[in-house]
From TrEMBL:
Name the record gives this protein: Uncharacterized protein
Source organism (scientific name): Parasedimentitalea psychrophila
Length: 48
């Protein structure tokens, strides 16, 4: 994960900056969750 440059938020309202950071964090967590689910699925045998 690469940090978001502070300069990206200059001149932006505080709530907009917080919203952008939270959105980025959610996206990163969702990506990790999906990646882990795919790895786990490959480790487990088919359930049929």
């Amino acid at each position: 994960m690469q940090p978001t440059p502070v300069s990206e938020f200059r001149g932006v309202a505080h709530h907009e900056a917080i919203d952008a950071l939270l959105s980025e964090e959610f996206t990163n967590r969702e990506t990790r969750r999906v990646s882990m689910a795919l790895m786990t699925a490959k480790l487990l045998p088919p359930s049929h």
